[in-house]
Amino acid sequence: MYNPDHTKPGSLKSRFTTRFLRALSKIHAHKPISSSSPTEMFQRYQRIKAAADKSMAYSVRSRRTWSRAMLWKLRTRSCGRRSVKTSTIIKSQQAIMKKTRHEKQNENTTTTATTGEDGVGFCVEEDELREIVPGGEAMDLCNLLDETAHYIKCLTTQVQVMKKIADFYSL
Amino acid sequence: MELNAGTAGTGSHETASERKEVAALESLQFTDEIRRLMLAPATDNASSFTALLELPAPQAVQLIHSPDSVKLTAVHAPTPNVDDFKGSFHFPFDSGLIERAARFSLFAGDGNINVNNKSNSLEPTSYNSTANLQKPVKSEPAETESYQALVSDPTVENRSIKRKDREKVKGSTKKNKTAAKDSSDDAEKLPYVHVRARRGQATDSHSLAERARREKINARMKLLQELVPGCSKISGTALVLDEIINHVQSLQRQVEFLSMRLAAVNPRIDVNLDSIFTADSGSLMNSNFSGMVMPMMWPEVQLNGNRQQYPQQSQFGAFQQPVWGREEVCNNYMTPENSLLSYDSSGNSASLHSNQLKMEL
């Protein structure tokens, strides 16, 4: 019952917990909570959220597209105004990808019109999924579903750990 | 020539396959040979053609159309009667049978060639009984004479394709599952790979690739359905995707929510992280902790009322205002707690809390 961090020592849960607690302590040490203004609270919230995402992405390393994309996003966000140019470039790239994907979908739907199946893409939901999953713009549907599955797994771990920590602290 | 082959008498199946067209001949030596050959057990599929000789024609035709080696080997059970054979021998003129015979004779062995050539001389004499035999039999030696596996295979393949088309027309949709197996079996025998398409579907490479891709996508969707709770009941890919999207969104919102909570909560003590993951002595600290909990609880009691209306999900819009208000209240109460805690032995409490956290996690 007193297992430290689940069954496996090197599991995703333990890695994430370590990193996140470290980041949390750093944030709390950096600024004590004496100041209770909403803006500062908000800033702190943002920092903690970024720390949570970052620690999760680091726990996954670069093995997954979504973790790479998330790390990249966090890095560019922290860089600030300098990255405006790169972000516009990225956005244009993404727009191009979307266009080519739509073209491909149109082609495919015309060629496979004979079959009574769903066709290649699910259009609306697929685009939504791409927006939600980090790094989902540049993937085809097959890989996107893979990434989504792994992302869901990691998100649930994250939520579990954070819930436990929050419960613990607010006791 | 057949007599020579017969007296050579190895019982090889090549000679037997050549004998099929002259089985109608009534010579005693011949019937003895046939009897011997038929009684000999067939070793592999190529020799199963001898098994066909035992059957009456319709059954043989049936066997051709459903190529299961099991059926053919089971045929050996009944003892053949050559007399019946002689009288009622009625050669099935199925092109499928012919091409299969050609295939077997081809694959039978090298010694076939001479036998084939010699058999040609006997053609005009042996086919007086049934004129119908001439056409299929002549085509068969013509094929075997060339004896180039590559050349004959296209013809065989064409015939096999025709056979498949006929089977498709018959509407045997249940063969979809066995189609893959058949194609793999055929691939072993012939250098061409036959991929059997399902009924009503195109067979060009594009649609095949498309189909493979779609199957991959469907497999992954099934996995996702298992991951997302409550998704397995839903049928239809669009709805499942909607559920998945909702689930991911709710998880992301939960993370935001919890990070808000954590931002507001003050870690009452400096948690020594190194001690968290070292050896646990949680049971020791537990008793102390229960003693400590009581003084901490009384400021919490007043907060409990606020806390209960703390929803886990939803209503995030209206949520903002009360949250910040509550947290401010909470903070005011935190400081006396801090003082309380620092009252106790801080070192003890630090390791205590870290152990507690470790336990919970």
Automatic annotation (TrEMBL), chain A:
Major subcellular location class: nucleus
Where in or outside the cell it occurs: the entry states: Nucleus
> Can you cite an annotated GO cellular component?
nucleus
Q: Output one GO BP term.
A: regulation of DNA-templated transcription
Q: Which UniProt keywords apply?
A: Nucleus, Transcription, Transcription regulation
Q: Which InterPro entries match?
A: bHLH_AtIBH1-like, IBH1-like, IBH1_N
Name listed for the protein in its UniProt record? IBH1-like N-terminal domain-containing protein
Automatic annotation (TrEMBL), chain B:
Gene3D superfamilies referenced in this protein's UniProt entry, alphabetically: Helix-loop-helix DNA-binding domain (4.10.280.10)
All copies of domain BHLH, residue ranges:
201-251
Q: Which UniProt keywords apply?
A: DNA-binding, Nucleus, Transcription, Transcription regulation
Q: Where in the cell is it found?
A: Nucleus
Q: Where is the composition biased (Polar residues)?
A: 115-133
Any single Gene Ontology cellular-component annotation:
nucleus
GO terms of molecular function: DNA binding; DNA-binding transcription factor activity; protein dimerization activity
Q: Does the keyword Transcription apply?
A: yes
Question: What residue spans carry the Basic and acidic residues bias annotation?
Answer: 179-188
* Region Disordered, annotated ranges: 115-188
Query: Which SMART domains does UniProt cross-reference here?
Result: HLH
Which Pfam families would you find in this protein's record? HLH (PF00010)
Q: How is this protein named in the record?
A: Basic helix-loop-helix DNA-binding superfamily protein, putative isoform 2
